[in-house]
Amino acid sequence: QKFDFLGYTFKPRVVKVGCKLKMGFSPAMSQKSMGRITRELKLMNFHRWVQFPISKIAELLQLKIRGWINYYGKFRMSEMRKLFRVLHIRLVKWIRNKYRRYRKQSWGYAYKYLQSISRSYPNLFEHWQFEGFRP
């Protein structure tokens, strides 16, 4: 009942038409595309770029993130939440490598630090500008 085409998975989903909910056949980002982007993030090894500040990392990732949002976010942007969760985990790894005080603590402290950065600078990363995509 589902198939992949051009990086999207088409399958029956609940679609809102007017004020009614109906079964429709709508696209969303495919698992294959998400896996490819996740591997790309892993191969970039930006969690090892401790010589750069977070603003430089955001600048280097800006075009990629904007491209993913413009292509895959066209239909079901909520499906990209999993992808951005992976990106946030990589950023937490960067924080733990960059700042010594977060190395021996649990991941939660570094994640809270990333949340505070996202509250202070909501336009730093491209996907933080959208509702529900901040850490």
Summarize this entry quickly.
The protein is an alpha+beta fold. It has helices at residues 31-44, 54-72, 81-98, 107-120; strands at 3-5, 8-17, 20-29.
Task: Write a structural description.
The chain is α+β, with helices and mostly antiparallel strands and 135 residues long. It is built from 4 helices and 3 strands. A hairpin with a 2-residue loop joins strand 2 and strand 3. The longest helix has 19 residues, at 54-72. The two termini are 34 Å apart.
- Tally the helices: 4
Low-confidence stretches: none
Question: For the report, how would you describe the main beta sheet?
Answer: 3 strands, antiparallel
Q: Tell me the helix content.
A: 40-55%
**Strand order in the largest sheet:** 1-2-3
The proportion of residues in beta strands is 15-25%
Radius of gyration: 17 Å
Count the strands? 3
Mean of pLDDT? 93
- The best one-word shape is elongated
- Class by SSE composition: alpha+beta
Distance between the termini: 34 Å
N-to-C SSE string, H for helix and E for strand: EEEHHHH
What distinguishing features does this structure have?
135 residues; alpha+beta; three-stranded antiparallel beta sheet; elongated
Topology overview:
Elements: E1 3-5, E2 8-17, E3 20-29, H1 31-44, H2 54-72, H3 81-98, H4 107-120
Antiparallel strand pairs: 1-2, 2-3
